Amino acid sequence: METRDTRAAAAAETIPTCSCSTDAGAAAEPFDAAELRIRERVARMRHKIVILSGKGGVGKSTVAVNLAVALAGRGMQVGLLDVDIHGPSVPMMLGIEDARPHNHDGALLPVEFATNLKVMSMGFLLASRDDAVIWRGPMKYSVIGQFLADVEWGDLDYLIVDAPPGTGDEPLAILQLLGDVDGAVIVTTPQEVALSDVRKCVGFCAQVGCRPLGIIENMSGFVCPHCGETVDVFGRGGGEALAAEAGVPFLGSVPLDPELVQAGDLGRPYMAAFAQSATAEAFRGAIGPLMALDERDQERSDPRPVPSEGER
Ligand code: ADP
């Protein structure tokens, strides 16, 4: 019978080695072969969107999870790739932290949260959720490469990538490895201390040639459950003002919502548990521009009707 240990061992077989690593593991394969597999897999992903934030704790993973669930709710085939190597929180937020990806024909099958929402995260490969990953840049680059090369993602309408905060190794690695991404969604809270880091994120996007698809202002206003009054705990409007200043679309504000915390802690994606709430509506609004990417694609690929004689 398969146990947690045998599952972890099977998954560990595919934990990467890189040429600079002294860790024991599978023999390093020629980089070209892995790169070719990445290209083949990525070619089957129609839209690739990276979720970034300037600093931690602003709700980037929460936004990534709920955007992915919202897109899947619209019938899209979605992959959610958590490249936060040191602090993967996606599995817990989806309540699948005990799931393990299985090996199939030499590839890892991502964990299916739903038939059209597949998930991969470092969190699935750790023997214990409290284990710390202490890796330098090349090792992280290598594992992120394997998340693309060795995971059987299949055909996806959207790959949503949850990158760790800041502009370090992981966002750089995923952008380099994916190559042609649609762009980045940047998550911030409204106060200036978070916004100054978002400016760096926008600058990072410009430097690496990644289009900022928009800014989401999270934790924007708290509606008191007792009196109904809105309290702007972190201020309000900073994200929108910054979006205007940077010439980046504003994708909307997500309120500070205690049920969002509960949902995250209980592993019940908020969008699924509270689909009718104002907060869920904010997430649905934010996916509008992401869905528009797909609609533009469809228009391009749909054959144009041949104009009739009279119309020519
Ligand atoms: P990050 O990925 O930016 O580090 P997380 O998504 O892990 O941030 O969120 C940090 C904490 O804040 C989590 O406990 C999460 O449930 C909570 N949180 C995120 N967004 C909201 C919100 N809009 N309202 C209330 N709590 C939130």
Question: How would you characterize this protein structure?
Answer:
With 312 residues, the protein is α/β, with parallel strands linked by helices. The protein has one domain (30-290): 3-Layer(aba) Sandwich (Rossmann fold), CATH 3.40.50. Helix content is 40%, strand content 20%. The chain has helices spanning 4-12, 31-42, 60-73, 90-93, 137-149, 169-178, 192-208, 238-246, 258-266, 270-273, 278-286, 288-301; strands at residues 45-53, 78-82, 102-104, 107-109, 111-114, 117-121, 156-162, 183-188, 212-223, 230-231, 250-256. Strands 1, 2, 5, 6, 7, 8, 9, 10 and 11 form a 9-stranded mixed sheet that branches. A two-stranded antiparallel ribbon has the order 3-4. A hairpin with a 2-residue loop joins strand 5 and strand 6 (117-121). Helix 3 (60-73) crosses helix 11 (278-286) and helix 7 packs parallel to helix 8. The longest helix is centred in the middle third of the chain and has 17 residues, at 192-208. It is globular and about 60 Å long. The termini are far apart. Residues 1-26 have low confidence and may be disordered. It binds adenosine-5'-diphosphate. Adenosine-5'-diphosphate is lined by residues 53, 56-62, 89, 165, 218-219, 254, 256-257, 260-261, 264.
